[in-house]
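Example record

One chain of 488 residues, shown exactly as stored in the release files.
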Amino acid sequence: MGVSGLLPLLKSIHRPTELKKFAGETLGVDAYGWLHRGAIACAVDLAKGNPTRKYVDFAMHRVRMLKHFGVTPYLVFDGDFLPSKAATEGSRAKRREESKKSAMELLRAGKASQAALEFQKAIDVTPEMARNLIDELKKMDLPYVVAPYEADAQLVYLERQGLIGGILSEDSDLLVFGCKRLLTKLDQYGNCIEINRRDFCAVREVSLTGWTDTDFRRMAIFSGCDYLEGINNMGLKTAYRMMRKYKTPERLVRMIQFEGKHRISENYMSRFAQAELTFIHQRVYCPTKKRLVCLTEPEEGKSVEGMPFIGGYVEPELATAIAVGDVNPITKETIIPAPMPGSKTDAKRRHSQSAEALAAVSSASTRTRPPTKPIDSYFKGHQRIPMGEMDRNCFSVDPERVAALTHNGLVPRVFPLPRPYVEGTSASQPVTSSHPTRTARSTTSPRLIRRRTEPIQNLLEQNAPGSSYESPELPLVMQQTHWMTSIP
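Predicted structure tokens for this chain:
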């Protein structure tokens, strides 16, 4: 879309700016650019015909952002196709059809992510989708207009008439039409790039000093635009150098044909003239006069009657109906908005789908089914017994089972208490001390093993007063002392 490489050619005059600097002004907006970007998020739904409003929500988010910064948006929508752009539109439609076909094949193959990318390439914004956005603009009482043909020419006309103070778009064609102030690369925070026509003389990539709008327009057409394919192997810089050298398009084409470096068709000059006249005299809608006018009125002695490529004439009543969005600019019939979630069209569609589903269910239920076993038959062997019917001793302890586990009471089932002073863990770290270290006590001695396994009641009885128990491991002196203290 637009002239390839034109914005990078003017990179030296790109001025980063913010929307808040344009508070109190009215900016024209290429509405189809916003709709196309919003449609990327719902490309699959649009391709399948499912109702969605994501593209409207995206555009309205941008509208509210402009209002937040004090800027009044003036949205301009594209209209009918220009005869000069028939070849370009035909190739684009063919590419969209191929992308949609490949996307459906990928979807059937189960490659949903790849199919979504192809669906995005097949997006085509329609007047029905634009009508949904127009309805939202009417609720906010914001200005808008549907151009009879190209929105670019309509935006430049509104700027020349003083109805807008600048143009917000991603299309570089606006500079070829004669846009004075272009705001592009707008992000979600209100930051954008300003390209002002008065700064053309400061371009460092090429010298535009002394160049007129006509020279700039012809350079862009030679490199390739929507109305004429560019010459092979000729970019913007090559076209600039040749226009600087040969001054006029006729001399430039003759020298190219003489040198033979580039291939040019025989009718190239006539097509070049048509493209240039389309940029100059394209038909637009005048909101003040309520009828179609030319972007630039032809000079005296020239008539637009012999220029069908700039767009056909439309009666004022029909042109006004198209401009307000009531009539489809392509078919010239009353426009029917695209189905939206929750709308009457969507309700009818859902009702028909539910009716079809109910019919399918009823037809399936009437089919003969094979006999099946009742679900209760699987649980007959495991019926639940009420608590009142159960034996009251069913949960009592079985003495025979306890005797088997304890070897008739010889091996008590006890769990020793944790004794950190007896049982050392391997994870514990040794404590460093300045005192001499003692010999580690054996952890496999009979005494420690007995302490770990013996019931704590036995240990208490051993230490009780009057007990005659003598430890076999105690020294002789300690045993005598223990025996003497045990005498009454």
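Notes: The two ends are 117 Å apart (CA to CA).
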